[in-house]
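Long-time lurker. I teach an intro course on protein structure, and each term I like to show students one example going from raw sequence to a predicted 3D structure in token notation. This year I'd like something fresh instead of my usual example. Would anyone be willing to generate the tokens for the chain below so I can use it in lecture? Attribution to the forum is fine with me.
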Amino acid sequence: GIGYVCGFMIYLILLIYGSQVMMGVMEEKTNRIAEVIVSSVKPFQMMLGKILGIGLVALTQFLLWIAFILIVYNVGKASGNAGMASQVVGKMQHIFTSVNMPLILFCFGFYFLAGFFFYSSLYGAIGSAVNEDMREAQSLSFPITMLVIISIALMSTAIADPTGPIAVWGSIIPFSSPIVMMARIPFGVPGTVPWWQLILSMSVLILSFMITVWFAGKIYRTGI
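-- Reply from a regular --
Happy to contribute to a lecture. Here you go:
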């Protein structure tokens, strides 16, 4: 359950805010803002700034969601039925004490940001290649959106068999690792997920992000 919730939240963030990066890049090109900014900074820095800015907005909204959930939980615990509330609290405590929550929270934060940066750079590259034609942007972004949807399907397989080949390779390949790896980690590290797989997955995702941002910056410069 924890792995499914984490993977699904990352899935929503990738779809919602990744497309916002594409729209932001298209808007800057249409309004000629990019031509002014690119005279002072490199395209790589400009694209990275766009991704980091929207990424911090997504992170802020995510933290507000967490705060809201904690408030609702505490209010329900204080004002709800005492017997029912104690049972719910007891079950949640049992769930959280049975897994390595500090590691899960750290990995969730990493894959949340790294996955967003990776997919945002891909969406940013599409925004750099098109102008104000929304139909062209939607057609070009469809394959990337399908990769995110396929990752959700792989996540279901990974939850059913977290040590299977589909789960292992899906958690290493950068297109699906943010979602699939988060579905495997609650099963245990290093029990179900060896340390080398976790480190390799993180390293490949970071390297892929840097390459795609550089590539998107090149497309951005050509488009301008």
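Some talking points for your students: The CA atoms of residues 90 and 140 lie 48 Å apart. The mean pLDDT is 79.
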